[in-house]
Amino acid sequence: MKVKEMSLDERPREKMLEKGADALSNAELLAIMLRTGTGGMNVIETARALLASCGNRINEVAGLSTDRLCQIKGIGPGKAVSIAAAFELGRRCAAEAAREEHTSVSSPKAAVRLLFPHLRDLDHEECWVLFLNRANYLISKERITTGSGDATLIDIRTIIRRSIEKKASGIILAHNHPSGNAMPGKADIEETARLKKALNTCDIVLIDHIVIASKSYYSFSDEEMCRF
Fold first, then answer.
1. CATH code (residue 198)
2. What values do phi and psi take at 212, rounded to 5?
3. pLDDT tens digits, 133-182
């Protein structure tokens, strides 16, 4: 059945206008972003197919790259970009809400609050850095590199250069594990040791390295792994 053949109170746009966004299902909200269906499926059916491909978990959809979205039947580049943009706005909104004008990063939990909105739902690895002053107040946070589904590069030269430019006294390194397992691997431990040694030559402290998964995190500082 085409959407225009549905009753007005079943059509996503009309339903949202009448009852508000919170009255819509995840599939109906996605349908509004998709706008049209394709190839024998109406837009709601296309949205349901997208959800089903991610185990009906909206946070899994949020982490899909545009390339991965385009592999879903009925979703081309235009629709993929619209979906990715909407979820990115959501992440930025969450990050903005968590950010204060002067943020003290005095514990791994405080760092995780700043980083979770950026890293928890991705289907690829990214490396981020929190740059801190001597009082552990946040100067800025930046994505340093973007990697694949199971690896990312810790760009030591870039991290040191940016730390010096920002006059940071310490940094907190972070990256994510899309697998959902926050435990660091051998490469994570070795790269952390290399970064710590390089930072020491510039009188910059590696305060922590945090590995973020979908529902958990691992702090090198908590586990005393930053004392190499």
1. 3.40.140.10
2. -110, 130
3. 999 999 989 999 988 766 778 899 999 999 999 999 999 999 999 988 99
